[in-house]
Amino acid sequence: MPTIDFYVCSEHKIKACANWIEAAENFPCTGIYIPEQSALTSLAGLLTGTSTYQVTRLDGITEPIYCLNINISKAIDGTSYDEITDVAVKWASQPPWRNVNINPFDLAGFLVDLKSLWCGSREPQKSIFLWFQEET
Questions:
Q1: What's this model's pTM, rounded to 2 decimal places?
Q2: What phi and psi, each to the nearest 5 degrees, are found at residue 132?
Q3: How confident is the model at residue 54 (pLDDT cuts 50, 70, 90)?
Q4: Which of 5, 12, 89, 107 could be stapled to 31 by a disulfide with Cβ–Cβ 3.0 to 4.6 Å?
Q5: Per-residue pLDDT for 133 more than 80?
Q6: What's the per-residue H, E or C state across the chain?
Q7: How far apart are CA 129 and CA 136, in angstroms?
């Protein structure tokens, strides 16, 4: 299963990092193992009502870091902590997770952590950035 690290900061600050390790040392970060990348598409559908999951690779850096679509970030911001539990339960029942023994509350914990990082950031031009770790 691929691992994805999620960072909350501004684009110019993450581009100033030499690598993902420096980013993790300087910015709030959370991560998750996903069965396949379509798990993010199903999460986007649950949060925004559309299956539009979009990331844009950042230019000018060597690490494969992507910026998450702002609509998903705004949806995370607008979702209450109670609603996150409901989203997590629905997300755990989606096709990417069906063959994985996942506890919906583990997914809820990840989503609560991501929401807390987003809401706790004082960065005016913040975004959620993703780093996809290679499977080994």
A1: 0.88
A2: -90, 115
A3: confident
A4: 5
A5: no
A6: CCEEEEEEEEHHHHHCCCCHHHHHHHCCEEEEECCCCHHHHHHHHHHHCCCCCCEEECCCCCCCEEEECHHHHHHHHHCCHHHHHHHHHHHHCCHHHHCCCCCHHHHHHHHHHHHHHHHHCCCCCEEEEEEEECCC
A7: 22
